[in-house]
Amino acid sequence: MPLTDKFGRPITDLRISVTDKCNFRCVYCRSADPENHKADHELLSWPELDRLSRILLGLGIQKVRITGGEPLVRPGVEDFIARLKSLGVRDLSMTTNGHLLADHCDRLVAAGMDRINISLDSLDPAKFEKITRTHSFSKVMAGIDRAQASALRPVKVNAVLVRGLNDDEVEAFAEFARERDLIMRFIEFMPLDADRHWTRDLVVPAAEIQRRIEARWKLEPLPHDRSETARKFRFAGGRGQIGLIASVTQPFCGFCSRIRITADGKLRTCLFSKDDHDLRYMVRNGHTDQDIAGYIREVVNDKEEGHRINEPDFVPPSRTMVFIGG
Predict the structure, then answer these.
(1) DSSP codes joined into one string, 241-273
(2) What percent of the chain has pLDDT over 70?
(3) What CATH code is assigned to 13-324?
(4) Which pLDDT score is estimated for 325?
């Protein structure tokens, strides 16, 4: 019987974080402390990830996204992707910051990856360095170009917009999508930053982004599944697409199909869950596959109705994005 929650939502999408380490220190995600990560023995090993993946696919998971941290900093990620593909994952993707992508792209394609999302929060090198606290702009651009020239085309490029930081680049990002014939996705800033600077005033609403782009170019809506995070548009008479992910101002929780496994083996039923559910303990302490599958069903059945960002009693999760997996 496929996974469903108590609201009748089918759970078909899985995010797997393979590491909490990252070679970037993005201001909306994590602390600038380079040692701010868990010891290796606290993370799931590849065989442990293989086992949990097999169990979850047996429960009806169809789509898997590999996340981090930065997934490409963990040796062996391409082999893991190949094993997932051999298990029958219908749609296999990755979210990456792009720094190492040019070097890994061919191996990812050979392993069976279907799609890729690349984070790029500014088209201005100096601003990019301020946001990411790195000097990696040219390497990220090379990664985008390499992926766009591969079987992963069309590449999805993600930008988290923060008021006063990079919201002046909406039109430039749209032009970037048109010039390179890729999918540019705008993501509203969510309360997941390590430095706890998030306020509602820093959120750039998706409706504002759409208005600004439509002032320059005509957009045509594209069909999407109800559980998809992005509302999609193409440029009329031109190349490229945009996606709007309005997690704060237009929540799509009512059709959510996603669960997450953190790098240290915790099952999370929402990005903003207050509770972790410890699969690592079960894997390492003699529980059978049937035990684990039963526990997953129980946890998923109690999946939250929504993230509650817009409720007066909202409390941000104790973990930030880098420790949860995007």
Answers:
(1) EEEEE-TTTS--GGG--EEEE-TTSEEESSTT-
(2) 86
(3) 3.20.20.70
(4) 58
